[in-house]
Design a protein that fits this description.
Blueprint lengths: L1 H14 L2 E9 L3 H12 L4 E4 L7 H5 L19 H4 L27 H14 L4 E2 L4 E8 L7 E7 L4 E9 L5 E2 L11 E2 L14 E5 L3 H10 L5 E6 L6 H4 L11 H7 L5 E4 L5 E5 L5 E5 L33 E4 L3 E2 L36 E3 L17 H20 L5 E5 L3 H11 L1 H5 L4 E7 L5 E9 L6 H5 L7 E7 L31 E7 L5 H5 L12 E4 L11 H16 L8 H10 L5 H5 L11 H9 L24 H7 L17
Parallel strand pairs: 1-2, 1-6, 2-3, 6-16, 8-14, 9-10, 9-14, 10-11
Antiparallel strand pairs: 4-5, 5-6, 7-15, 12-13, 17-19, 18-19, 18-20, 20-21, 21-22
Helix pairs in contact: 2-9
Length: 675
C-alpha cells in the first residue's frame, strides 16, 4: 500500500504544472537580493524563493546578541562613492543612493535589526521579484538537450508546487548549526537557543565549545556575571588583525582574551571536541571527562562510577564542574534538499561545510548551478572576504556577468583606451576600486592589449581563478598579451602565529616594493593568456602563474598610491619596459620638435598632437610647468599665442636651442627594482 501511494504521488507530481523561469534564486538574503538586482536591471526572467515572510531572515535571529561585526564607516574624508564602499561593509550594490547602509545606522558596528530593515527596503524599493513563504524542499534535474545547460532544474516547494528553471542560483547561505556528538552532548545548549539575558548566568560557571566570533560574542555578553568562563576548541585562537581574515576573531568580541592573559579566572584550552564526554552529577553539575574513560561503562550508574581525568591527574585543567556548556561552532550548508542527480558534494577538510564549486562559482558537478554568498566562500576561505557582504556583492556581480555572456551573448563590460592612458587607468583603479580592495587575490582587473600596443581594453573585477578561460567566459579576445591588476598582502605577513606589529614592518622605498607586507597593488604581465595547466601548477599561495614580468607598487600608509616618485614613475617604467614604448606625456611644442628630429613619434604625440590635439605652449603654461617641476627653467621665448602676427624673430637654430625637448627631472632616477 505504501509503495502504491508513493507511486501515485510521483505520478501526481509529474503531472503537476511547472512554473517556468529562466533563473531561479533560492534565498532572499543579501546575496540573493544582489543577484535579483542584476537580473532585473538586465531585464531577465527570474524569481527569488524565500522561505520566510521577509528577506534576510537569518539576520532576524543572528547574531544572537544583535551587534554586527561588519563595519559601517560613514566618513572617509572623500566623496568618491566607489572608494567609500571600501569601508562600507554592509551596503549592496545598486544605482539608488538611498540604499546606502549609512542611512540606516550611525553605529560603527550596527545592530542586526538595521540590516533587516535595510534588506526589506532593498527588495521593496527596487521592486525585486521575491516569492515569500516559499520553502524549496527538493531540487532535481530533468535532462533535455534543448535546455541551456543540457538539463532543467526542477524545484518543489512545501505546498508541492513545482517550478522549472534553466539556471539555478543558490543563495541560502550556511544556516544549519554545526553539532559535535559525544557522550553527554545532550546536556549542551546551542548558540541558536541559549539565553541572551546575562542575569540567567549570574554566579554560574560556563564552558563554551568553539573559538569563533559567535563563541566570543556569547562570552562577552556574560563575562561580567559568571564565576568564570572556559572556552575549548580544537585549534588555537586566530586573531583577525594577524590573519587579515575578517572571519577570524574581531577585537570587538575579544574581552575574554584580556581576562585570560591577565589571570582573571577565565581561560582558553585546545582539544578535540569529539574526544570529550560530559557526565552530570546528582546536583546537576556537569563534569568534563574523556570519551575513552566511558568505554564499556554504564554512565547511568552515576558520577561515582565514572573515572574522571582528575582521578589520575589531580591538576587536570577542567576538573571544576560547570553549570552550563554552550555550543558555538558556527553553521554549515544544507545539502538535504538536493537530489543525488545534482551531485552537490561537500568540500574537503576545513571546507566541508561548503559545497564544492569552481573558481567561477559554478558547481563542479552540475553545469548551470551557481552558488552565491556565504555558501560560496570555499573559493577564498580564510583568504579574502567572499563569505561576507562586502566581498560577495562583487562576486555575485561577476557571476551575473559570466551568465550574461554565456546565455545572452553579452560580453563582459569593457572600455577601450589609447595606450597613453594605461598608467592613468591603473592608478585610478588601484586608488578607488572597492572590488579589488575587498576581494584581494580573488578578483582582478584585466588589461587586454591591442595589436602593436596602440590601445588596450580594460575589464574590471574578473575572477582570477578562471583566467585561463577568459576568452570563453567574457567574450573578449587576448591575442596580444595582457596585464592583470590585483591586490595582495605580503607572502609571509599573515597568519595566526604572526607578529604583525613588529618594528620595520612596512616598506617605504620603491626599490623594495616587492617586500611590501600590507595590502598593495601588484601588476602581472603575460605575453599570452596562461593555460589551465599553468593555473593548476602555479606556486603555492600564488593567485596566478609565474608571469613574464611582475611589478609591486610599494605599500602606502594611507592606501593612496598617487605619489609621483614612489608609485607612478616606477609603474610607468615597468609598463614601458613590457611594451617597449614611451608612455610619457608631452607638450605640443615637444611633439612638434620630435616630428622634425625623430623618425618615430612617441604614442602620446601620434595619438594627440598629430591629430591636432594637445596643449599649445604659452608663457603662462610654461611658467606653470616650470613651477610644477615638469619643465626645465630655460630662457623664455615667444610662443605663437604671444608673438605679433608679423614677427619673424629667431632662426631655426634659435628655435631648437630655446625649445629643447624638456627632460623630466625624474628621468635621471634609476628604475626601481621590479620583482
Amino acid at each position: 500500500l505504501g509503495l502504491a501511494l508513493y507511486a501515485s504521488s510521483l505520478c501526481a507530481a509529474s503531472g503537476a504544472a511547472f512554473l517556468y523561469h529562466d533563473y531561479c534564486v533560492i534565498g532572499a538574503g543579501p546575496s540573493g537580493l544582489q543577484a535579483a538586482y542584476f537580473l532585473q536591471r538586465a531585464g531577465r526572467d527570474y524569481v527569488v524563493f524565500e522561505r520566510s515572510h521577509a528577506p534576510g531572515s537569518f539576520f532576524a535571529l543572528y547574531p544572537r546578541h544583535r551587534k554586527l561585526i561588519s563595519i559601517n564607516k560613514r566618513y572617509t574624508g572623500k566623496s568618491n562613492s566607489e572608494f567609500n564602499l571600501r569601508h562600507d561593509w554592509n551596503s549592496l550594490l545598486s544605482h539608488d543612493r538611498r540604499l546606502l547602509f549609512r542611512r540606516y545606522s550611525r553605529d560603527f558596528f550596527p545592530d542586526a535589526d538595521a540590516m533587516v530593515r535595510y534588506l526589506e527596503d532593498f527588495a521593496s524599493l527596487l521592486k525585486l521579484r521575491v516569492q515569500y513563504n516559499t520553502a524549496i524542499i527538493h531540487v532535481t534535474l530533468e535532462r533535455d538537450g534543448q535546455a541551456w545547460n543540457g538539463h532543467y532544474f526542477l524545484l518543489t516547494d512545501q505546498d508541492r508546487q513545482n517550478y522549472k528553471c534553466s539556471s539555478l542560483l543558490v543563495a541560502t547561505g550556511t544556516w544549519v548549526p554545526n553539532v559535535v556528538n559525544f557522550p553527554g552532548s545532550e546536556y549542551v545548549e546551542g548558540y541558536e537557543t541559549v539565553s541572551i539575558n546575562p542575569e540567567d548566568f549570574a554566579g554560574q560557571t560556563v564552558l563554551i565549545l568553539g573559538r569563533g566570533n559567535s563563541a566570543f560574542e556569547t562570552a562577552e555578553n556574560i563575562l561580567g556575571v559568571t564565576n568564570f568562563i572556559h572556552m575549548v576548541s580544537r585549534s588555537r585562537v586566530r586573531l583577525s588583525w594577524a590573519t587579515h581574515y575578517v572571519g577570524d576573531l574581531r577585537a570587538i568580541n575579544n574581552g575574554l582574551l584580556d581576562t585570560y592573559q591577565l589571570k582573571s579566572l577565565d581561560g582558553l584550552l585546545e582539544g578535540n571536541l569529539e574526544d570529550l564526554a560530559i557526565v552530570k552529577d546528582k546536583k546537576g553539575k556537569l563534569h568534563i571527562t574523556l570519551r575513552f574513560y566511558l568505554e564499556n561503562r554504564n554512565t547511568s550508574a552515576g558520577i561515582d562510577s565514572v573515572t574522571l581525568p582528575q582521578d589520575e591527574l589531580d591538576n587536570f585543567a577542567t576538573r571544576a564542574p560547570y553549570d552550563r556548556v554552550i555550543r558555538c561552532l558556527g553553521w554549515k550548508f544544507d545539502f538535504s534538499i538536493y537530489n543525488r542527480s545534482l551531485r552537490m558534494m561537500p568540500g574537503k577538510g576545513n571546507k566541508k561545510k561548503y559545497p564544492q564549486i569552481k573558481p567561477s562559482y559554478e558547481s563542479r558537478s552540475t553545469r548551470g548551478l551557481f552558488v552565491l554568498g556565504t555558501a560560496s566562500h570555499s573559493v577564498d576561505f580564510r583568504k579574502s572576504a567572499g563569505g561576507f557582504i562586502h566581498g560577495f556583492r562583487y562576486t555575485t556581480r561577476a557571476v551575473h556577468r559570466l551568465l550574461e555572456n554565456r546565455h545572452h551573448g553579452v560580453p563582459w563590460p569593457s572600455t577601450v583606451y589609447p595606450i597613453t592612458q594605461l598608467t592613468n587607468s591603473i592608478i585610478k583603479r588601484v586608488n578607488e576600486a572597492s572590488g579589488l580592495y575587498q576581494m584581494f587575490s580573488i578578483l582582478a582587473d584585466i588589461i587586454l592589449l591591442r595589436e602593436n600596443a596602440t590601445a588596450f581594453e580594460y575589464l574590471e573585477e574578473y575572477p582570477v581563478g578562471v583566467l585561463a578561460e577568459l576568452e570563453t567566459q567574457t567574450g573578449r579576445k587576448a591575442p596580444n598579451g595582457l596585464f592583470v591588476v590585483i591586490m595582495e598582502y605580503g607572502r609571509n605577513f599573515s597568519g595566526a602565529d604572526k607578529d604583525v606589529f613588529y618594528y620595520n614592518r612596512a616598506v617605504g622605498e620603491a626599490q623594495h616594493a616587492w617586500q611590501s607586507n600590507f595590502l598593495h597593488p601588484v601588476i602581472y604581465y603575460y605575453k599570452r593568456l596562461p593555460t589551465e595547466r599553468e593555473m593548476r601548477l602555479r606556486p603555492p599561495d600564488w593567485p596566478l602563474p609565474r608571469p613574464d614580468a611582475v611589478h609591486h607598487i610599494v605599500e602606502d600608509f594611507l592606501t593612496d598610491w598617487t605619489a609621483p616618485n614612489a608609485h607612478i614613475l616606477p609603474l610607468r617604467r615597468f609598463l614601458e619596459n613590457c611594451l617597449s614604448t614611451d608612455l610619457r606625456n608631452f607638450f605640443a611644442e615637444s611633439c612638434f620638435l620630435f616630428a622634425f628630429t625623430h623618425q618615430k613619434l612617441p604614442p602620446f604625440c601620434r595619438q594627440g598632437y598629430v591629430r591636432m590635439q594637445g596643449l599649445v605652449g604659452s608663457e603662462g603654461l610654461r611658467r606653470h610647468a616650470v613651477e610644477a617641476g615638469l619643465l626645465e627653467d630655460y630662457a623664455p621665448t615667444d610662443f605663437p599665442g604671444d608673438r605679433p602676427p608679423d614677427s619673424r624673430e629667431g632662426s631655426q637654430d634659435q628655435l631648437l636651442r630655446d625649445h629643447a625637448i624638456p627632460v623630466h627631472p625624474l628621468q635621471h632616477l634609476v628604475n626601481a627594482k621590479d620583482e
